[in-house]
Design brief:
The chain is 26% helix and 29% strand. The protein starts with a helix and ends with a strand. 23% of the residues are buried. A hairpin with a 3-residue loop joins strand 1 and strand 2. It contains one helix and eight strands. It folds into two domains: 35 residues; 88 residues, Gamma-B Crystallin, domain 1. With 128 residues, the chain is of the alpha+beta class. A four-stranded antiparallel beta sheet has the order 2-1-4-7, with no helix packed on it.
């Protein structure tokens, strides 16, 4: 009887330590995802909550257009720590009217709420 109890306690302890290890790994992944390399430039992310592939844009002046390459029509979240407003276009070369503008120092973890999820083809930095 004592051996059975000891085995059960050992099995429960092993299961709990395994779960704690998985939780720690998930927490580390979340911390890495939230700690972006996007500190002073503008960044687009493939998935919601700044996950997946990242494309960074280094604008040196206002009224500069950049085509989205690796995330063309795939961006689902963004960070704009820059001092400029970023306009989103659904066509290349910032043609046509823009459909969304990110304020300076802003972020959006899900572009669905503004109708621009998976639609961005180019971006332009303008004066705030």
């Amino acid at each position: 009887m004592k051996r059975t109890t000891v085995r059960r306690v050992g099995a429960v302890a092993l299961a709990l330590s395994s779960l704690m290890g998985v939780g720690a790994t998930a927490a580390q992944a979340d911390a890495q995802r939230l700690a972006s390399s996007c500190l002073s430039s503008f960044c687009l992310y493939e998935h919601d909550d700044y996950a997946g592939a990242e494309q960074e844009f280094l604008f040196t002046s206002n009224n500069t257009c950049a085509n989205v390459t690796s995330l063309n029509n795939k961006a689902s979240s963004m960070r704009n720590p820059s001092a400029g407003r970023i306009q989103f276009y659904d066509s290349a070369n910032c043609s046509g009217s823009y459909g969304y503008a990110a304020a300076p120092g802003s972020s959006d973890s899900d572009l669905t709420n503004n109708g621009f999820d998976n639609r961005t083809s180019s971006v332009k930095r303008v004066s705030p």
